[in-house]
Amino acid sequence: MHRPTMADALFHLTTADAFEAALARGEYRAASLSSEGFIHLSTAAQWRTTAGRFFRGQAGLVLLELDPHGLDVRFEPADGELFPHLYGPLPVASVRAVLGLEVAADGAVVAGARRPR
User: Fold this and answer.
1) How far is CA 114 from the centre of its chain?
2) pLDDT tens digits, the chain, 117 residues: what are they?
3) Distance of CA 114 to CAs 11, 62, 86, Å?
4) Which end of the chain has fewer CB atoms within 10 angstroms, the N or the C?
C-alpha cells in the first residue's frame, strides 16, 4: 500500500458554487473547518471512494487538485486508512486544477474536463 506523502497531490470535493465563492474571497473554508477543526482531503487513491460514499446523486461538484506544500496537512486514521486533513483554510492559490464531476445515485463518478488554474 502506498503511504501518502506531502510530495503527492491531494484532493478535495466541493460544489462548484462553494469554490466560486472561495475564488472571490481568496480562500476556501469547508463547514468541517468550524465543526471539526479541519477540511477533509483525499489522496489520488481515495477521492473516488470518498465521492461515491458522501456525494451520491449530486451534480455540480468539483474536484480540487491541491498542491500541499505550505499547508498544515496531517495524515490521520479514519475508516482504517490514513486520510489527509487540512488544518486551516485552503488558499485558492494552492489549487492546481479543477475537475467538474457528478456522482450518480449508485456512487459512480462521472468526471468532466480538467481545468488548470
Assistant:
1) 14
2) 445 555 689 999 999 999 999 999 999 999 999 999 999 999 999 999 999 999 999 889 999 999 999 999 999 998 889 999 999 999 999 999 999 998 989 988 887 655 555
3) 13, 10, 23
4) N
Question: Residue 102's beta-bridge partner residues?
Answer: 110
How far apart, in whole angstroms, are the C-alpha atoms of residue 82 and residue 59?
A: 27
DSSP the chain: -PPP-TTS-EEEEEEHHHHHHHHHHTEE--HHHHHTSSEE-B-TTTHHHHHHHH-TTEEEEEEEEE--TTS-EEEEEETTEEEEEE-S-EEGGGEEEEEEEEE-TTS-EEEEEEEE-
Query: CB–CB of 96/66 below 8 Å?
Result: yes
Distances (CA, A) of 26 to 21, 42, 50, 97, 117: 9, 21, 25, 15, 13
C-alpha cell at 26: 481568496
